[in-house]
Amino acid sequence: MSSSILLVGSGKMGQAMLGGWVDTFVTPSDVVVVDPNVENLAVAKALGCIGHQSPVDIDGSFQPEVIVLAVKPQMMVDVLPTFQTLAANGALIISIAAGTGIAQFETAFGATASIIRAMPNTPAAVRHGMIVCCQNGHASSAQLEICDKLMTAIGTVAWIDDEKLMDAVTGLSGSGPAYVFHMIEAMAAAGVRAGLPEDLAETLAEVTVAGAGKLAIASDEPASKLRENVTSPNGTTAAGLAVLMAEDGLGPLIEKTVAAATKRSKELG
Ligand SMILES: NC(=O)C1=CN([C@@H]2O[C@H](COP(=O)(O)OP(=O)(O)OC[C@H]3O[C@@H](n4cnc5c(N)ncnc54)[C@H](O)[C@@H]3O)[C@@H](O)[C@H]2O)C=CC1
Ligand SMILES: O=C(O)[C@@H]1CCC=N1
Predict the structure, then answer these.
(1) 60, 71, 82, 263: least buried by Cβ within 10 Å?
(2) Is the dihedral of CA 192, 194, 197, 200 positive or negative?
(3) 73: domain CATH number?
């Protein structure tokens, strides 16, 4: 890829995206990474990217085509002004920050700046992320294509028109891996309580969740049908599901979980 990328923030999500990009079509030396955290910056440098602790250290001739903002939402107010000059050549701005609305970036970079708000998730680190993107209408078709290519390198991409949906996206797929990891933790702990050795219980929980996810994606059947396929009449699964699908079971709990995360995303905005 000939595009030059400026990645602002090389933390958990920044590193996850960077790994996918350089594994696929992005030349590491085309990426400049800014992060004051020396350890996180070292991860980017180890991949072959150019790293700086501050934007003032960036070579004056560097003109990024894409600026990816991967810092905490609470930091945006302080961080954005320091990148205004680097964005002045019409760079595409992509923010992955939860809650932070496109309007905040238009305020910082100009009302006609090309802004994309994207919500990835950490499975991007193994190129199985879910990334939902939403744009402000000023990005050119070439810029939309660059964003789509960058995000496709780290997972499955969906575009939405209504920015208001980004909070629910964040509550479902952005935060979702944590819910699934907790499910793995809970299943493994339950296996141990049922008498399994810890290592075996962890493997069973991880492989079962990963396998069910793969089957759900590969199959044309809805998840409800795949669930029924596991469930023999009066068998073990029916006994387990009677607990999980009870009135106060997983459904209402997940509904409350996603609603709480969605609400928090709105608050961060
Ligand atoms: N962790 C996740 O699963 C997801 C996170 N996000 C979003 O990604 C963003 C980053 O989150 P994480 O990677 O989890 O956080 P993190 O704390 O791991 O990474 C943030 C990085 O920003 C760096 N940073 C702080 N001030 C900076 C500055 N002035 N200039 C450049 N870098 C600076 C920090 O040193 C750190 O390395 C957040 O806005 C979050 O909402 C979005 C989707 C998923
Ligand atoms: O917890 C957070 O706020 C971020 C956004 C989505 C996942 N992690």
Answers:
(1) 60
(2) negative
(3) 3.40.50.720
